[in-house]
Amino acid sequence: MPVGVIGLGDIAQKAYLPVLTALPGLDLRLMTRDGAKLDRIGDTHRIPAEKRFTDLGQLIGSGIRAAFVHAATDQHVPIVEQLLTAGVDVYVDKPLDYTLDGSRRLVDLADRTGRSLMVGFNRRFAPANVQAKERPRDLVLLRKNREGLPEAARPLVFDDFIHVVDTLRFLVPGEIEHVDVRARVREGLVEHVVLTLAGEGFTALGIMNRMSGSTEEILEVSGGDSKR
Question: Tens of pLDDT along 187-209?
């Protein structure tokens, strides 16, 4: 099946191309506007020159049926719109867009065109998290901390804390009835944020401290007198 990979930055190189190039039955085509990078990565993964593109329209015209979008977030809407309109199924890195309006446009377009649109929340597929979901989860605690990295609220939430939010939503064992958010903000930069999600018989806490002195991601689930 012909599949496009759009955007060849760090996440595409370290997480996606090593897997995609090893899967049988995929006919990969690469696309980035940086010709030198395109040739370097194409050579590394032995992608023929005729399957390397610097123009999205030409990539679509090559007959791709699905695409992985790893471009910058501010380019997601125009790229994904063009792909969906052309009848191409899309997997796009989180966040879908920095705005609710942009996200809704893409979701509505996918519905109208009948195409798949998947946002890449990879923690849902991490083996340890999948195993944690099989255990009692009366209390879920997820900490994702950084060192010396306070940031404005919108990029912090959409580029990083969104993983915490989605992982908690994935793991909670029932309907969320209560949401609480607390944060420390100094000079316009968020230093830490704490999210509480709760429902009948469960509580989930998501904590991000951008001034924690260490970079770490720790998940703890407990219930029924057991803990993982």
Answer: 999 999 999 999 999 999 999 99
